[in-house]
Hints:
With 78 residues, this protein is mostly helical. Helix content is 49%, strand content 5%. The protein is built from three helices and two strands. Strands 1-2 form a two-stranded antiparallel ribbon. The longest helix is centred in the first third of the chain and has 17 residues. The protein is globular, with a radius of gyration of 12 Å. The model has no long low-confidence stretch (mean pLDDT 88).
Amino acid sequence: MSQTPPVTPNNMLQKTHVETYEVVKKFISENGFSPTINEIASKRRLSPTATYKHVLKLIEAKMLKRQVGKTRTLMPVK
């Protein structure tokens, strides 16, 4: 069962951010490594720029973490 937090105005996340989070979790579960921004964008049918903004918002909300300067390091925070 998913542990996704509720989407409320108080936590600054919109449904689209949570959907991006779910794509990241599912990709890692299926492939064993993190997706790139382009892979997330493709699955969400969004531009890479919009996807990057969603990822930054999720990092700010402490739902995802990453290593700056490296690829495929997005990970859900447990």
